Amino acid sequence: MSKGKKQPNWNTVMTEVEVTSALNWFNHNQTTRFAKKEFVRYLKEKQICDSKYLKKDFDIIATDGFIASLLLQGYTLPEKSLTYFNKGVKEYINQLIEDYEEPKPKKQVSGHSNLDYKLGMVEHEIDNFFDKWESEFEPRAFLVGNKIGPNKAREYAKFYQTVLDELEESFTGKSKELKEAYSFAGKRSLNKYKKFLQKIISEFTEYSTTNRKPRKKKVKTKKSVVSKTQASLDSHLRNL
Fold first, then answer.
1. pLDDT tens across 123-139, in order?
2. Which of 73, 123, 169, 228 is 20 to 30 A from 10, alpha carbon to alpha carbon?
3. Cross-strand partners of 76
4. CA-to-CA distance for 8 and 63, rounded, in angstroms?
5. What is the pLDDT of residue 235?
6. CB 126: neighbour CB atoms within 10 A?
7. Is the pTM of this model over 0.85?
8. Cβ(14)–Cβ(2) below 8 Å
């Protein structure tokens, strides 16, 4: 599809299915530059971030920019999607303030990454998982359907391994910050989330190793064989 195609008219009050449909449309018809522009506009119009923090360039998942665009247009999102988006906005703002006050290498915040918009689609599936603590999402089918390469799949697997590590650390109670981050659900529900993450990591990792293109074998030509034989002969004669 070409960029700039007329946007469909979705229902003002959107369901999760409609949000997913809208995100798919944006992914195929808009750019990451558009997403970044809409996200910054959202922060400014809602006055939730001082403009001075927005002067420095920063990366976002395109999906967050598309969600911001929907909100700016007056669409109402399901509570779960809106809560997840608002949580992400706070993380972005905290990172912007931290970078502004004390510049340092950016740390990756679990749940948000600058990998690409397709990772944002997986994040949306995880968001939907929290509704009923179950999902029909098939990781491998997602990778195949979106023509994602093995290297990118491995990158995604590493990202979610970090998320899983943090989840398991929250179970120990050693980190107060992580314990609070997952306080929205009980241990039984979080164990379901753990299994869901393990499925994603497992299938992404398997895909990254089984879908690599085989290395081409170097075909020995008659010229190269003769050349090596001659070199061996010359070396032998020098040693006599």
1. 888 888 988 889 999 99
2. 123
3. 13
4. 17
5. 56
6. 18
7. no
8. no
